[in-house]
Amino acid sequence: MARAVVEGLRFERYEDFRRWTETQPGYWILIRGVPMPSPSPSRRHQEISLRLELLLVEAVRRTGIGWVYYAPLDVKLREDTVYQPDLLVVLKEHADRLRETHIEGAPDLIVEILSPSTAHLDLLEKRYDYAQAGVQEYWVVDPDTQRVEVYRLEGERFVLADTARGKGRMRSGLIPGLEVDLEDLFRDL
């Protein structure tokens, strides 16, 4: 993925970036002031996202502990850094972060599903930015290796709390009842 799509274009304020994206095709993220396109996910990526979303809805929405959202929805971590996580959860105690057009600040849980064009971004820059913003739990799903990693925030850093590949169950330390069976997650993909 190209770093600077429009030569020299930078945004210092989220509102300026948001107005600009309304005139652009596709979806965009903002990394330290630099706009970048967010490519359309594959069918397999979408299927994994849907399966995880259904589990999140069951654990979060039906129990009334918060809200579940999916991409594209802006998450403004700072004025110059805006991402669109594949899936995110905002718990009721952080309802003040919900805006009409975006999430203002850190969601409680974020799930990113790796794609070849964005894996580097998800594993490095986003992980760092999510931790600095205060995301409590970060799940990284790799469809190619059928691996899931769960990171939990300790201080200002994520620590790998659990990992599995192809089979096994992953549980959230944040969302009661959120359990993912990897064989079901990756079945028939």
What would your notes on this structure say?
About 35% of the residues are buried. The chain is α+β, with helices and mostly antiparallel strands and about 190 residues long. It has helices at about 15-20, 45-60, 120-135, 180-185; strands at about 25-30, 35-40, 65-70, 75-80, 80-85, 85-90, 100-105, 110-115, 135-140, 145-155, 155-165, 170, 180. The chain has four helices and 13 strands. About 25% of the residues lie in helices and about 35% in strands. The protein is globular and about 45 Å long. The longest helix has 19 residues, at about 45-60. The mean pLDDT is about 95. Strands 3-6-8-9-10-11 form a six-stranded mixed β-sheet, with helices on both faces. A three-stranded mixed β-sheet has the order 5-4-7, covered by helices on one side. A two-stranded antiparallel sheet has the order 1-2.
What is the makeup of the main sheet?
6 strands, mixed
What would you call the structural class?
A: alpha+beta
Question: For this entry, what is the oligomeric state of its chains?
Answer: single chain
- Estimate the global geometry from the Cα principal axes: globular
